[in-house]
Design goal:
Elements: E1 2-6, E2 9-13, H1 21-30, H2 35-39, H3 44-57, E3 64-67, H4 93-106, E4 110-113, H5 122-131, E5 137-141, H6 148-157, E6 160-165, H7 170-177, H8 181-194, E7 200-205, H9 210-213, H10 216-224, E8 229-234, H11 250-267, E9 271-273, E10 291-294, E11 300-301, E12 308-309, H12 318-322, H13 325-333, H14 353-356, E13 363-364, H15 373-397, H16 400-422
Parallel strand pairs: 3-4, 3-10, 4-5, 5-6, 6-7, 7-8, 8-9
Antiparallel strand pairs: 1-2, 10-11, 12-13
Helix pairs in contact: 3-16, 11-15
């Protein structure tokens, strides 16, 4: 039997399909201590089959496929790249159905939906979850469209869970997401908790809310509201004209990392941090290992924050898109630094963007405010330079045993993936 400790109590995790299964497997991934334990998360048979398919098709198959079914949203958040997009962009139901069919055949472990607001297409998503009941789904949602009927269907289906976006307490959330949003978010959490759904919370931390979102007070509050897992990502200034003043300083980011690491250890609570979990995700919690993103226009990208591509899913199959020259070039260029505390090519090592931009046919996919990789590199260079000595100091303080484990697993994973691509 599988268990997780939630608010100090041992909770039983039912077998899949169940909405708490996603939380359990995420927890297992970030506590993996060996290649065996890493591969065994989704079953050794699935892991072996996935490696065989990678070699057969000469592609890197993502563990997680993030899809934006729509760019439409019912609110407008400050600093959200999707707010810049044409809100009529969407992937057809038929194409989504095809992508999910291909994903299961290829051995993709999890499907994530984002946007826009994915629940603007609530009925389509429920229909897809019913049809593809062998695939686990998770949604990044602002939570304002969750009601009792939806929660009841989530509990019945079992193969879907949600991450609800929140920016801190009322003032911080309403500042970025609009007045009254905080109360709607809390109402959604109360509904999910009432239906015994172990949902997650999602936070974008920036120069205004960084201290609040990693405080014991806020993290305790989200768990008491029913959150079983957390997802954090640092604000990234995407698109021309993006406000760089919202980026955290090196000191602020380091503070978040130390507070979150301490909280996770004390409470056995999993928080996935895009910026600061590179040392736990063998490169990067996003595009570094086993991740791919399809935006609402159909462009296949390495990461939700990396708005560059050379292929569109509307013109080909998922397998063909994963075999694109840019995707191969991106995978082969990893790791982007020798320090897992500096994993991101945008915020940590922007000089590598010059190398990535050399792939033929790659273009900006930021629909309203496109920028070249060179322009993005210039925008984040000072931020990366500020973080480098801090990240290097974190590496020096890591126990040697931990460093060896990370380097070994990263080399094995990257070697296997690149071997499959080159074979």
């Amino acid at each position: 039997m599988r268990y997780l400790t939630i608010l100090g109590k041992k909770q039983k995790i039912p077998k899949y399909p169940h909405h708490k299964d996603y939380v359990y497997r995420s927890h297992r991934f970030f506590e993996a201590r060996s290649l065996y334990s890493l591969l065994a998360i989704n079953g050794l048979y699935k892991a072996i089959r996935r490696f065989w398919l990678q070699r057969k098709y000469k592609i890197a198959i993502p563990y997680n496929l993030l899809i934006d079914p729509t760019s439409a949203c019912n609110i407008k958040c400050i600093g959200c790249w999707a707010a810049d997009y044409d809100r009529s962009s969407k992937i057809s139901f038929e194409k989504l159905d095809e992508i999910l069919t291909d994903a299961r055949k290829l051995g993709v472990s999890d499907i994530l939906f984002s946007g826009g607001e994915p629940l603007m297409r609530k009925e389509d998503i429920l229909k897809l979850c019913r049809k593809h009941n062998k695939l686990p789904f998770a949604l990044f949602t602002n939570g304002t469209l969750i009601d009792d009927a939806f929660a009841e269907e989530m509990a019945r289906l079992g193969n879907m869970n949600v991450f609800i976006s929140i920016e801190g307490f009322r003032d911080a959330t309403d500042f970025r997401r609009g007045k009254g949003t905080f109360d709607k978010v809390i109402a959604a959490m109360d509904i999910l908790k009432k239906h015994d759904i172990g949902f997650g919370f999602s936070v974008c931390y920036n120069s205004r809310n960084w201290k609040e979102i990693c405080s014991d007070e806020f993290l305790d509050f989200t768990r008491e509201k029913g959150a079983w897992i957390g997802w954090m990502f640092n604000y990234i200034p995407l698109g021309k004209g993006a406000d760089t003043e919202l980026c955290t300083t090196a000191e602020q980011r380091a503070f978040v990392k130390q507070k979150v690491d301490s909280y996770m250890k004390r409470h056995k609570f999993t928080i996935i941090d895009f910026a600061n979990n590179g040392h736990m995700a063998f490169g990067c919690a996003g595009a570094g290992h086993g991740f791919a993103h399809i935006n609402a226009n159909g462009d296949m990208e390495p990461c939700a924050f990396f708005h560059y591509s050379d292929v569109n899913i509307n013109e080909m199959s998922l397998r063909e898109a994963l075999a694109s020259p840019f995707f191969r070039h991106y995978r082969k260029t990893r790791p982007f630094s020798g320090n897992p505390h500096r994993p991101c090519p945008i915020m940590d090592v922007p000089e590598v963007l010059k190398v990535l931009s050399e792939s033929p046919g790659v273009r900006s996919t930021h629909l309203q405010s496109p920028e070249t990789m060179q322009q993005l590199s210039e925008k984040t260079r000072a931020i990366a330079e500020g973080w480098k000595p801090v990240g290097d100091d974190f590496l020096k303080k890591m126990p040697e045993k931990e460093k060896r484990k990370i380097r070994l697993l990263e080399r094995l994973i990257l070697y296997k993936e690149q071997e499959d691509i080159n074979s």
